[in-house]
Specification:
Distance between the termini: 65 Å
Strand order of the largest sheet: 1-2-5-11-8-9
Structural class: alpha+beta
Number of helices: 3
Order of helices and strands: HEEEEHEEEEEEEEEEEH
Oligomer: single chain
Number of strands: 15
Radius of gyration: 26 Å
Strand content: over 45%
């Protein structure tokens, strides 16, 4: 079973209280991309994924939908959240294998809270953010699940990340599943000055700065006859070395 991205209690709270404003992506035609060592496919996307580069066994793809779907704008009172899910399939071309992959991106975040003026009585507001992103890989039948994830809290500034698979030796189909969420919560600062009450909004926002980048590493697999020739060459070199030693 796929591991949850964040605790079930948090999910229950979010879906019980969050406003039903989350945008529903408009499905587009399936996306298919050819590279030297593999093919990239997804069933449908609101914005099509694109190939950035394909050089020397390193293919890099732009995945724009996470940034689109995780943006919610600044929240000053109450909370907002967004979620993202993407499913992609890689298929190696004959004579190639996948040796690894990585997913990289950068979150941005801001939080501001107005202080209660000196000498006045009041309550300081709050501003909080959370965000997470994970990438999981498995075979088409769902077996062999592995996952990498990145999470953050209360970000002010930038937070770049790279999630790497580590070394792989895989031929055939490989499914990649991406999941993410962003969450912001804010309450205003309030105070009294004599008979006057004042309120100052807090702000909380977190977002992906740009498209995610998926990089897949492939290498050519020698054909069986190439192995035979290589072994024959090694045997010949070994024989020559032994003759020289006897001489």
């Amino acid at each position: 079973m796929r591991p949850p991205l964040f605790a079930a209690a948090v999910l229950a709270t979010l879906f019980a209280w969050a406003p039903a404003h989350a945008a529903v992506p408009v499905l587009a035609a399936p996306v298919h991309i050819d590279t030297t060592g593999l093919t990239f496919d997804t069933a449908a996307s609101a914005r099509a994924e694109t190939l950035i580069s394909d050089i020397n066994g390193v293919a890099t793809f732009a995945l724009p939908n996470a940034a689109d779907q995780l943006a919610f704008g600044s929240v000053s009172y109450g909370f907002l959240h967004q979620t993202y899910a993407g499913l992609f399939q890689l298929n190696t071309r004959p004579g190639y294998k996948i040796t690894g992959y990585s997913l990289s991106g950068e979150f941005g975040g801001t939080r501001t809270v107005q202080a209660v003026p000196d000498g006045l009585t009041g309550t300081v507001g709050t501003a909080a953010t959370r965000a997470a992103l994970s990438i999981g890989a498995h075979l088409p039948d769902g077996s062999g699940w592995t996952t990498r994830s990145h999470s953050l809290a209360d970000l002010n500034g930038s937070d770049g990340f790279t999630l790497s698979s580590g070394p792989l030796d895989h031929t055939g189909a490989l499914a990649l599943e991406l999941d993410g969420y962003t969450y912001g919560f804010g309450t205003p600062s309030t105070w009294k000055d004599g008979n006057w009450s004042s309120t100052a909004p807090s702000t909380a926002d977190v977002w992906l700065k740009d498209s995610l980048r998926l990089t897949v590493y492939t290498t050519a697999v020698p054909e069986p006859h190439s192995y035979a020739l290589m072994l024959a060459g090694l045997a010949l070199v070994g024989g020559l070395a032994r003759r020289r030693n006897k001489a």
